[in-house]
Amino acid sequence: MAEEFASTRDTTEQTPQIVELERDIYGYCSVSDPNCGFVVGEEAVLAIDARATPMLAREMIAGIRTVTDRPIKYLFLTHYHAVRALGASAFGADLVFSSRDTLALLRERGQADMESEIGRFPRLFKGREEIPGLTFPDATFETELSFHLGDRELRFLRLGRAHTRGDTVCHIPDAGVVFAGDLVENRCGVYMGDAYVQDWMTTLERLRALDCQAAVPGRGAPMRSRQEIADAIDTTKDFIASIVGAVRHGLSLGRDLKGCYEEAERICNPRFGDWPIYVHALAFDVARVYDELRGLEHPRIWTDARDQELWRTLHG
Predict the structure, then answer these.
(1) Do 84 and 49 meet the contact criterion of CB atoms below 8 Å apart?
(2) What is the model's pTM?
(3) Of 23, 63, 90, 218, which cross-links 57 as Cys (Cβ 3.0–4.6 Å)?
(4) Structure confidence by residue, pLDDT tens digits, 66-93
(5) How do strand 72-76 and strand 95-99 relate by DSSP bridges?
(6) Where is the signal peptide (predicted)?
(7) How many C-beta neighbours within 10 Å does residue 6 have?
(8) Whose CA is closest to 27, among 168, 167, 217, 159?
(9) Which residue(s) pair with 141 in the sheet?
(10) What is the CA radius of gyration of the chain?
(11) If you average pLDDT over every residue of the chain, what do you get?
């Protein structure tokens, strides 16, 4: 019998903390669970990502209420993954923003992704019985949208394909802050199962070019300086390149998927094995890189059944 997903053994609850980055700009950050954030305007609040369930979203809303009683009128989704989007209904936002590609991905694979992610990482979906279904954005954009929250400009930017094809960031130019979603991680495992892996490197350089002084990564501690942001970008690129190199080497030796996975373990375990979610993410990372290097441009849809099949193949 195949062993369970590594993530099902992760039962330690994490309590997110509110981190003030600049005036009226806050991260809602855990040790290694998905990070969110919010921006307080003169009359209203914009939340950035929604957590995985309405119950968890209400915890975030309670945190926002310790800072301000202004209404949370707006919600921005950095991408479509269930762990960031399924709490959206709890906000009751007047407008939900995302890239056009994120909306398309929600329509195409949002339901499958919900079932897949709940099966993979049950701890992150506390109160999942309350999820009413998918929440779709009201306002979408192709590459860039400038939104004014009072006197502050927020720039929603799609910098390129990376963690998904719809990835976007929230850039706040006057403060030099960016909420990067899962474009970049800070010493946490990088999930590449729905990625455009080789495009990701170029997209990260576009993120670097924003030249911010503070950033919230998808997972891990917020970065508080240009150097910390540069370091996180570099380690994210190193992680991705290491897996690509391992799989490419495996393919050159005529290895199958399991053989490439074993090659990735050999190369990457000593370097990244103690990073949060690394053990869980590696299987899905290798599967996507294996597909991409063999010519499959677009990621295949993950379903609960496909997840289980992959795990059996690699760990059975």
Answers:
(1) yes
(2) 0.96
(3) 90
(4) 999 999 999 999 999 999 999 999 999 9
(5) parallel
(6) none
(7) 18
(8) 217
(9) 99
(10) 19
(11) 96
Helix axes 197-209, 278-293, angle to 10 degrees: 110
Per-residue confidence band for 40, with pLDDT thresholds at 50, 70 and 90: very high
Percent of the chain whose pLDDT exceeds 90: 95
Beta-strand pair 152-157/177-179 = unpaired
Please give the distance of CA 129 from its chain centroid, rounded to a whole number: 23
Please name which of 227, 271, 269, 207 lies closest in space to residue 6, comparing C-alpha atoms: 269
CA distance 264 to 251: 11
Residue 183 and residue 204: Cα distance in Å, rounded?
A: 7
Give the Cα separation of 271 and 275 in Å (integer): 9
Longest Cα separation, the chain: 61
Q: Quick one: which H or E segment has residue 231?
A: helix 226-252
CB–CB of 261/282 below 8 Å?
yes
3-state DSSP: the chain helix, strand, coil percent, rounded to 5?
45, 20, 40
User: By three-state DSSP, how is residue 153 classified?
Assistant: strand
CB-facing half-sphere around the CA of 212: CA atoms within 13 A: 32
What is the spatial distance between Cα 128 and Cα 144, in angstroms, rounded to a whole number? 33
Report the SS3 class of residue 27.
strand
Give how far the C-alpha of residue 147 lies from the chain's centroid of Cα atoms, to the nearest Å: 22
